[in-house]
Structure prediction request, 229 residues.
Amino acid sequence: MEEEVAMSAVRLCKSYDEGSSTLEVLSGIDLDISQGSTVAIMGSSGSGKSSLLQLLAGLALPTSGKVMFGGQDLAKMRDSELSMLRNQEVGFVYQFHHLLPEFTAAENVAMPAMIGGASYKESLHLASSLLGQVDLEARSNHLPSQLSGGERQRVAVARALINNPRCVFADEPTGNLDVKNALIVSDLLTTFSEKSGITVVVATHDPVVASHMSLCYEISERRLRLLAK
Ligand SMILES: Nc1ncnc2c1ncn2[C@@H]1O[C@H](COP(=O)(O)OP(=O)(O)OP(=O)(O)O)[C@@H](O)[C@H]1O
Ligand SMILES: [Mg+2]
Prediction:
């Protein structure tokens, strides 16, 4: 059976306007990512990993070229469709957990479900089930400030998954963690991918995290190349 393409980049270019000059970050990137695959994007600091993730996730627009997501050209989608896509089809995990400090772990996880229209009760029910899956049921009612760094990142993973997305984008999700917690978080991402067929795209400096993904790319001199396993 032919693999379903989750998203594609076609001749993708990104430049940033710097007043009198232009900084070209990505130049002619072509990439197909299969549904359910796990992909690492590596490259030195400033090489364009976060820029590429933002383009693939529809959070930024390319200078030229296009991103097809689930067969749709992101640039041709209306704002309301893009918002729906960000809420329903994709999940995000960042280096800094971005949890809301005044809400409990469970409420933070529940937030995207409530934004998507689910009731408070239903959302919290789903959130506690997910917190169980990331081994944090006992910490559900704690505030982010009462959790360790590794626990906060697991909450962030649960939050990214609550709307049952097709794809999770993670930008340096283990950048703030020690080796043990980095492995726990990358294992969670790959386990959810295997279990639910979620596509995972991770920007990372960490070769160990990258080695857990099925494919590994490197951005160098504005281009993307596949690294041999
Ligand atoms: N909004 C912006 N405006 C101008 N320049 C930007 C903007 N965002 C990123 N850049 C520049 O584009 C280049 C690529 O940045 P990007 O954040 O994509 O790199 P990265 O590979 O994620 O780096 P890191 O590993 O440090 O996170 C950098 O030189 C950065 O300074
Ligand atoms: Mg980055």
